[in-house]
Amino acid sequence: MSRWQGVVLSLIGLTATIWLGLSGQLALYIHPRYFVFTVIMAVIAGVLALAAFAFAPTAQDGHEHGDEHEHGDEPGSRWGWLWPVGSVLTIIAAVVALLILPPSTLTTATVAQRDLNGSASALTLKAPALPGKGDYSAFTVRDWASLLRSGAGQDFFADKTATVTGFVSADKTDPNVFFVTRFVVTCCAVDAQPIGVPVYHPGWQNEYKTDSWVTVTSSFRANPNAASREAIVLIPDSIKPTTQPAQPYVY
C-alpha cells in the first residue's frame, strides 16, 4: 500500500503542475522563464510514474506485503486498519489541496514573515531611468520603491505623480500608513520578497481590508507623522479598489 501511495501522490502533484501550466496559473508559484522546463519535466515524470504501475515486479508485491506486516496490517491485528485508512485520507487531502482548492497568491501572512523593502536584490540596484518628459505612467511599484530606497529627498519627488497597483499591507510602525505591496519573484514563491510604496491615509483600516487590491494615484509628500520610518509617502488623491491582476508578481 505504501508503494502505491507514493506513486499516486506523485501523479496528483504532477497533474496539478501540468494543469497550472496549461491554465497559466503556474506563475503564482514560479518565475515564467521556468514554465516550459517545469511542464516538460512534469510530463516525463508522469510517464515514469505510470510505468511504475505497469512494470512493477511481482516480487515487490511480496515485499510490500511484508511492509504491511511491519505496520501491523496482519489479519486479526487491532490497529491494522489504520495504515490503509491513513493512506486513503492522505491521498484525499492531496486531491483537495492540489486539484480542488483554487491556487492563491502570497499574502500579508508572508509579508509578516519577511522584510518589506528589506531585500536589495528585490529592489533594482540601480534607480530606474527617469523619463525626459515627466511621464511616469510606466513606473511600477518596484520602480517607485527603488527610488524611495535610494534615499532621494522630498525635492526629488515634489513634481512626480505615481499610479501604483498592489495589495494592502499594514505598516507595522505607523497605523496611519499602509503599503501598496507586490512580491518580487526571482525563481519561485519560496524566494519571493515583498516590496511596497507607503501610503498615508489615516483610518484606512475602516475602508480597505488587508490583502485587498487597490490602485493609488497620488503625488509624493513628506509624511505628516515625523516619527514614522517612512519620511516620504503618497498622500492619495484617489484610492480605487481593484481586482487582483493576472500577473500579481513583478520580476
From TrEMBL:
This is TIGR03943 family putative permease subunit. It comes from the Bacteria. The chain crosses the membrane at residues 6-22, 34-56, 81-101. It holds the Pfam family DUF1980_C. Coiled coil: none annotated. It comes from Arthrobacter ramosus. The keyword Membrane applies. Residues 9-115, 155-251 form the DUF1980 domain. Keywords: Membrane, Transmembrane, Transmembrane helix.
